[in-house]
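Researcher: For the annotation table, I need structure tokens for endopeptidase La. Please keep the output clean. Sequence:
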Amino acid sequence: MSEDRLISNQRRAKSTKGFSWVLALASVALGLSFFVPTNYYITRPGSAIDLAPMIEVEGGKKDETGTFMLTTVRMGEANLAWYVYAQVSPDAELMQKELVVSQGESNEDFVKREQAVMDNSQKLAEAVAFKLAGYDVKVEKQGVWVMGTIDGYPAKKELKIGDVITSVDGVPTPEAKDLLQILSKKKAGDTVLLAYVRDGQEAKTMLTLVTLPESKSVGIGVRPDNKQNIVIPKKVNIASQGIGGPSAGLMMTLEIYDQLKTDADMTKGYRIAGTGTIALDGTVGRIGGINHKVVAADKAGADIFFAPQDTPGADSNYEEALATAKRIGTKMRIVPVKTVNDAVAYLNEQPKKPS
């Protein structure tokens, strides 16, 4: 072997050894990045899930030739690896932790809150669907539902997610607006007597009002919602499979209504996805992460996607959905809806999907 060839082989060996060290260090760094926390949550496209297998209406008919689908967003705490991924992926977003969970709220509390909101959304969907189908629906306002408490504020030590505030100083609070109205007449340092229900048991507690964060108003530090007892004439079973949040309200309403409407198949062979909260009057409300839900629906082969037309202009859910649809080049139709009646009217106008 010549001296030149020997030197060349030695250099090649050193180069290979150096590259191996770099690769090893990079692998270690990548592995460690999964254990480095950040102050962010990451959201990504979830899935589009057929609703018919999840919902069973007593006496209803499942004759759909197509399907209604709810859409989901994957969300979780972002470690350093996910943080870096979100910087380069068009289908991932970062949200500051405080925008997702309340100050001092644990992940367990967050999951509880999301599940409670889903339960409420299911009841609203049932009420709206039965009203659409011509049935009598009774709605009893039960009080102010505690959806979360703020760390460092009076309610944190006394109230839990799921509690229902029924009165303040003996004055009934059938809705969240009633609680806010009563407290708006008081000042920081005032003490109030709250009556509430927890797990079916009545209880009372004294709380001292404080000035709320980023606000001049006073309060006790809760995330309020309306708790209602909705009575419908038939039984509905909804297996939500651990999915949380209120955004499936519209699509659950359509599935329940279609099962009640036994004389016609509303889907007409189409795969219909969408999103949006539902109110008792049938209004469809704004949701978060609609861009991810459009991607999920497209991957599931949806033909139609209902998007809330919540505000006029470029900031609406509908416009955001349109922009995402254009970015990914989907053939799926993005349809704006302000109410559930808009969605029903659109489907009624469609011809049957060609075989």
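Researcher: And a one-line annotation?
Model: The chain has three domains: 3-33, 46-72+102-137+232-349, 138-228.
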